[in-house]
Amino acid sequence: MAVASQAQHLSKQCFSDVCYQLNIPQQTAKSGSGDIFFQISGPTSYSWIGLGQGSQMAGSNIFVVYTDGKDNVTLSPRRGTGHVEPEHDRSANVTLLEGSGISNGRMVANVLCTNCVKWQGGSTDFSGNSGDWIYASRPGDALDSTSVSEELEQHEANGSFTWDYVKAQGGSSGNPFIAAPQGSPSHTGMSSTPTVSSGTGNSGAESNTVEASSDSASSSDMTATAHGSLAAVTFLVLFPVGAALVRIPGIGVWIHAGFQIFSYCCFIAAAGMGIWLAMTENLLDHVHSIIGMVLLGVLFIQPLGGVLHHRAYEVKQSRTIVSYIHIWLGRLAILLGMINGGLGIQLRGDVKHGYIIAYSVVAGVMGVLFLAVIAFGEVQASRRPKTDVRGDVKQDKSPL
Ligand code: HEM
Ligand code: HEM
Ligand code: HEM
């Protein structure tokens, strides 16, 4: 009898032939925090199988299972940082329990987690009705590694689901998977089953909400594409062209000023989207976001520097310290922005090959042209007689 009642407290989800089970012991269900048990199982034809707490990779508490090459499994807790390989998380408090291992062509990890209520990037309430989880798997050669930070290849299947906590709540704080052999998918009968069998007695919670995240994923996908495209156009085309304008004889300095301020407005729009993405995906501390925000701050002072330079130039007819700050800060910021676009593409991870090539080619060409503009600017400045007034300044009788 004890076995049967224990089994009722396992909530199970299967995606194809990979299954996950969860038990929230009575004590944890009451207080909302404490120990939980979960099981990850799937055929050994998978290179790895993963389960995570959260609604997307970024900020989630991930557990990856693979064969260890010694007839057992390795459980690797990881921290999701974005669409890149999750890194090993030392702070996770997880233990592989009895019943874990490889049998009948399936790897099984029975896991006790004592700090799954809160992790870097999120938290859950185990006394609630449900929680957000993600899963992923990669078919392929066995990893056969005991290293918890073994390099993983990207998944072929992934998704998110809402786990019904009500079905999982209850039971003592003992290993529920050896007490409920009928509920475990680590049996011969399960190994060839393509989807969950409702005959296991506790699989009623199966994947009815798997597609739930696709809407929000696509809106953030669209924002990421809009952000990337606008930021790329701004740094690969607008800012360099605006800088080159100041070198073209006959073009007034105010054309440069107006053009660059317009470019900066485009950057504000792109950065707004970038900051929103970084906040929702927990990526504010990523190097791409940090460089982007530094650029936003640095370029903010450029118009002021430009005006101060222009005023001083009219009086002194030569560059002053403010000129060098305006010129070199502007040049370096534009070059750094071009490089930062590459880091953004890397961060996004799933960018189409054609787009990466297009970005690299345009960045390469514009980068070289921009360096030529810089060189030309320096030659022009060195040849300028001290008393000579730049064409644009001469023409411009503004009170600045
Ligand atoms: C080498 C390791 C990994 C890489 C390079 C990687 C990369 C990516 C990329 C590029 C995407 C977006 C495209 C797509 O949907 O396929 C993505 C999405 C996703 N990945 Fe991963 N991933 C890795 C590991 C994992 C692991 C271990 C999990 C475990 C649960 C996971 C769960 C997900 C989920 C649920 C999504 C869709 C939701 C989201 O946008 O975050 N990934 N991953
Ligand atoms: C405030 C500054 C910025 C922030 C907070 C920011 C944030 C982000 C984030 C979070 C992503 C990943 C989106 C995802 O994985 O869904 C991203 C992607 C990207 N970012 Fe930024 N970014 C900033 C500035 C820039 C700048 C200066 C560039 C320069 C070109 C840039 C170009 C890109 C590109 C090309 C992508 C790839 C998007 C795609 O291809 O769809 N970002 N950015
Ligand atoms: C966000 C706004 C701005 C950015 C990013 C920017 C950027 C730049 C850059 C990169 C250069 C050097 C071009 C080269 O490589 O040779 C430059 C030069 C210059 N900028 Fe700006 N600028 C901005 C706004 C302004 C404004 C508002 C003025 C005001 C009048 C101004 C006046 C000048 C002048 C006069 C030069 C030529 C300096 C010289 O060669 O002696 N800029 N700017």
From TrEMBL:
Any one Pfam family match given in the protein's UniProt record, by short name: CDH-cyt
Annotated region (Disordered), positions in chain: 174-220
Transmembrane segments: 226-246, 253-278, 290-309, 321-343, 355-376
Transmembrane listed as a keyword: yes
Domain Cytochrome b561, chain residue ranges per copy: 226-345
Keyword field contains Amino-acid biosynthesis: no
GO CC terms, sorted: membrane
Keywords: Electron transport, Membrane, Transmembrane, Transmembrane helix, Transport
Compartment(s): Membrane
Location of the DOMON domain: 48-138
SMART domains: B561, DoH
Top-rank lineage group of the source organism: Eukaryota
UniProt xrefs under InterPro entries: Cellobiose_DH-like_cyt, Cyt_b561/ferric_Rdtase_TM, DOMON_domain
Residue stretches of biased makeup (Polar residues): 183-211
Protein name (database record): DOMON domain-containing protein
Source taxonomy: Eukaryota, Fungi, Dikarya, Ascomycota, Pezizomycotina
